[in-house]
Design brief:
single chain, 420 residues, alpha/beta, Purple Acid Phosphatase, chain A, domain 2, 2 domains, six-stranded mixed beta sheet
């Protein structure tokens, strides 16, 4: 027997912020979760799996209209026609309180209630599936505590949308412990909520399959579902099946020793070509990080907008529109010693000394925050929210920018000093 474990589909995720990229393939990226779900259904039918379990967050929140629900129901109908049943729990994004609209799903889909755990028995496969949906977006209790004991003589699956012991970048919803899950005596735990694939344990198997489709630059690498093989009541294999249609990647480029901007651009293109080959024909959305000490640093800093544009042109040359550079981050350094420069008494040395004393100077930091207040309030909302927000109202954020500011200002000031 084989079954599919999927989670975190996030159908019709709004993906805010794409509009600020003029060349972004926004339509293709927004359509990706739907196409990934179609891939899941196609794979399930072709492989004739016994059933599918979806561990929460089918949706990304309340629907603006009924189209999202109609699309999901249509895909579930395809599984019904193939005789494939579906067990589904709701997570924090599609909790009962989050979805104001409702559509009746095909009869092959079982949605677990949010009031208490429930057990679904699939007699034809000798399987008992235990699960509970989220009633509200913020569930802070360990739902697994009240899950029933394993059914004797059956293969027991637990479905849970959870942060487990806590995961970076994910709200700590329905926290639980591995020991607590093991104590239930189930044969397999199908978890959801964490978007990176992870195997917490293999005896019994406790698995986050990751999300079905990466949605932004922090959700990199192949995405899809887990395919579980069961023989004689025991799990004999858990394999990842890649189903994504857009591949996000973080493409790091070593700049060490690069003589000029052209050489650095060539290195970026080579790294993107390798990443595009690994994406196997999918649209590649790449965040390029250029890192290292090189003579080219000064040239790049002086022509930073041109360099970023050159990187995007290089990407277009690779894949005829199949490679999109979401962002270029520069972490290059000039080939001179900042500490030596800061040890002098000239104006440049005084500037460096001021920057390096700033973290221990609350009064000066407070003055900077005051200076930046109006600018912060004028920033677009998408630049003030999220994990990569420009927090110009937070002292720790400004302090974190200081090394980058040094690398940006010093080459420009040195060139100005040396100008005829």
């Amino acid at each position: 027997m084989r079954f599919i474990h999927a989670a975190d589909i996030h159908l019709d995720s709004p993906l805010r912020g794409l509009e600020r990229y003029e060349d972004a393939p926004a339509g293709e990226i927004r359509e990706a979760p739907r196409l990934a779900l179609k891939n899941l259904v196609r794979f399930a039918v072709e492989q004739r799996v016994a059933f599918v379990v979806i561990a929460g967050d089918v949706y990304d929140g309340d629907w603006p209209d009924y189209n999202t629900g109609v699309f999901f129901a249509a895909q579930m109908s395809r599984l019904r026609e193939a005789g494939i049943r579906v067990a589904l729990i709701r997570g924090n994004h599609d909790a009962a309180s989050q979805i104001s609209k409702e559509l009746k799903l095909p009869g092959n889909v079982h949605v677990f209630p949010s009031q208490q755990p429930e057990t679904l028995v699939l007699e034809e496969f000798g399987v008992a599936i235990h699960g509970q949906s989220f009633a509200t977006q913020s569930v802070t209790a360990d739902l697994s505590v009240n899950y029933p004991a394993a059914r004797r003589g059956l293969f027991n699956i637990g479905m849970l949308h959870t942060s487990a012991g806590g995961r970076e970048g994910h709200e700590n919803y329905a926290p639980c412990t591995v020991a607590g899950l093991v104590a239930k005596g189930y044969d397999y735990w199908a978890l959801g909520h964490v978007h990176q694939r992870e195997e917490l344990l293999r005896d019994p198997w406790i698995v986050f399959p990751g999300n079905l489709q990466g949605r932004h630059a922090r959700e990199t690498g192949p995405k899809g579902c887990s395919v579980v093989t069961v023989d004689d009541g025991h799990v004999t294999g858990v394999e990842h099946e890649t189903l994504d249609v857009v591949r996000w990647c973080e493409c790091e480029v070593r700049a060490d020793g690069a003589k000029d901007r052209d050489e650095l651009r060539s290195r970026v293109q080579s790294a993107l070509r390798v990443a595009a080959d690994a994406a196997d024909g999918r649209l590649l959305a790449a965040r390029v990080i250029v890192r290292g000490i090189c003579p080219a640093h000064r040239d790049v800093i002086q022509h930073i907008e041109q360099f970023i544009a050159e990187c995007r042109v290089a990407a277009n040359d690779i894949g005829s529109g199949r490679v999109w550079v979401e962002k270029v981050q520069l972490a290059t350094h000039a080939a001179f010693d900042m500490d030596d420069l800061a040890a002098g008494t000239d104006p440049l040395a005084q500037l460096l000394q001021f920057c390096r004393r700033l973290p221990d100077n609350p009064a000066a930091l407070s003055d900077l925050l005051t200076d930046f207040r109006d600018l912060h309030q004028k920033l677009p909302l998408e630049l003030r929210q999220g994990p990569e927000a420009l927090r110009l109202d937070e002292p720790s954020f400004l302090v974190g920018l200081l090394p980058e500011i040094e690398q940006l200002l010093v080459p420009r000031l040195l060139d100005h000093e040396n100008a005829p």
